[in-house]
């Protein structure tokens, strides 16, 4: 092999090593963000404006030495700013004690990490990563045996994360998004319209539908009991407990024929072990002149090795959350997070629909809305 070839190979090795190292640094940042989120450190900083490690520990009932290390790491990572109290030009000045350094959370960073009403709120996604990381031994076993790691096994971090990630989008953007599609809005606005939200999770989409269409009856369905309990609690807190109903049931249990004017599945079809059964039940449950709409990840039309960051992100979720959850049910089709439109269309046709139609709703996070055509 020529020297030039060896040099080129060396550059490629160094480049890839640099990429892996950068990813490792990012992974450590994610873990540090999880600590700051769950220990209440970010919220304490956002509320106080500026805190030392002693003050932060006192406000959050945590240990100062851990708080100090975390604050310094966050400053080095560029997440926090630190007040420069040492004067490098004054040789006689006493150095400031490490526990007295004062740290701040910039307003832009506070919105991303603490504002649960912001469309840029990303702290919940970090909780999902932590939940899946805690299951790595079980994931390794599943990958070897063909089993899975269920949603229940992922625990509270995952459950809360899923609801909190999408809540701002449902609260702020779902109503105008649906109203922008005239034919859909017309059905949802029927007097006494009956709407199903299948795979409702913590119920934020269900509540958003109820607010957008106050004359409608809205029912949420989910197979996860803690999520249904949370959804009922959220409905009561929002004063909507009398206007919505939540059921511990899967979509395949929608047995009443022609009961609903419309049905939605928000970011859940790709998780379903038997999506065709669910879509077939939804088809029977929705009136012939009704609407069935699926919101799921806006991945590319087909696989390509040069996928964008959204594709990489969705494949990552699929590896550690969605695919293992789906495969935890015997007989699952194992869709995974990266559900192409061709896959959804195949499920829809097998369930008795004639095809699918992408709705002209853009800019709704990384999701697309698809209407199933009878």
Task: Tag the structure with descriptive keywords.
about 375 residues, alpha/beta, Arc Repressor Mutant, subunit A, Rossmann fold, 15 helices, globular
Give the name of the CATH architecture of the largest domain. 3-Layer(aba) Sandwich
The outline comes out as globular
Helix count equals 15
Portion of residues within helices: 40-55%
Describe what this molecule looks like in 3D.
With 374 residues, this protein is an alpha/beta fold. It has two domains: 3-114, Arc Repressor Mutant, subunit A (Orthogonal Bundle), CATH 1.10.10; 131-373, Vaccinia Virus protein VP39 (Rossmann fold). 51% of the residues lie in helices and 13% in strands. It has a seven-stranded mixed β-sheet with strand order 5-4-3-6-7-9-8. Helix 13 links the parallel strand 6 and strand 7. Helix 1 packs across helix 6, helix 6 packs antiparallel against helix 9 (156-179) and helix 9 packs parallel to helix 11. The chain is globular.
Secondary-structure topology with pairs:
Blueprint: H1 3-38, H2 41-48, H3 53-60, H4 64-76, E1 81-82, E2 103-104, H5 107-114, H6 123-133, H7 136-145, H8 151-154, H9 156-179, H10 182-188, E3 194-198, H11 204-212, E4 217-222, H12 225-237, E5 244-248, E6 260-266, H13 275-285, E7 286-297, H14 309-327, H15 341-350, E8 355-358, E9 367-373
Parallel strand pairs: 3-4, 3-6, 4-5, 6-7
Antiparallel strand pairs: 1-2, 7-9, 8-9
Helix pairs in contact: 1-6, 3-4, 6-9, 9-11
């Amino acid at each position: 092999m020529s020297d030039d070839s060896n040099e080129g190979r060396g550059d490629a090795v160094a480049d890839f090593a640099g990429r892996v190292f950068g990813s490792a640094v990012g992974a450590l940042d994610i873990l540090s963000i999880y600590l700051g989120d769950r220990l209440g450190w970010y919220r304490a900083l956002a509320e106080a404006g500026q805190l030392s490690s002693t003050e932060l520990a006192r406000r959050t009932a945590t240990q100062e030495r851990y708080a100090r290390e975390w604050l310094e790491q966050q400053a080095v990572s560029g997440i926090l700013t630190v007040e420069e109290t040492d004067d490098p030009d004054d040789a006689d000045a006493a150095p400031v004690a490490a526990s007295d350094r004062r740290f701040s959370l910039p307003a832009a960073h506070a919105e991303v990490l603490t504002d649960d009403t912001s469309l840029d709120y990303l702290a919940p996604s970090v909780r999902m990563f932590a939940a899946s990381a805690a299951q790595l031994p079980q994931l390794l076993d599943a990958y070897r045996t063909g089993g899975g790691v269920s949603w229940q096994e992922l625990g509270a971090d995952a459950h809360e994360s899923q609801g909190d990630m999408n809540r701002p989008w449902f609260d702020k953007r779902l109503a105008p998004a649906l109203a922008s599609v005239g034919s859909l809005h017309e059905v949802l606005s029927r007097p006494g319209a009956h709407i199903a939200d299948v795979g409702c999770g913590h119920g934020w989409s269900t509540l958003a539908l109820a607010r957008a269409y106050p004359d409608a009856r809205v029912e949420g369905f989910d197979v996860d009991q803690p999520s249904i309990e949370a959804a009922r609690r959220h409905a009561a807190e929002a004063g909507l407990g009398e206007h919505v109903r939540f059921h511990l049931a899967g979509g395949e249990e929608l047995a009443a024929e022609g009961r609903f004017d419309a049905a939605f599945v928000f970011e859940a079809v790709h998780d379903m072990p038997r999506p065709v059964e669910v879509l077939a039940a939804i088809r029977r449950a929705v009136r012939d002149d009704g609407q069935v709409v699926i919101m799921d990840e806006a991945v590319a039309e087909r696989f390509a090795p040069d996928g964008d960051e959204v594709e990489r992100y969705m494949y990552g979720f699929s590896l550690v959350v969605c695919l293992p959850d789906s495969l935890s049910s015997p007989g699952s089709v194992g869709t995974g997070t990266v559900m192409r439109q061709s896959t959804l269309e195949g499920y829809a046709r097998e369930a008795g629909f004639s095809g699918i139609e992408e709705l002209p709703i853009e800019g709704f996070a990384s999701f697309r809305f698809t209407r199933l055509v009878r």
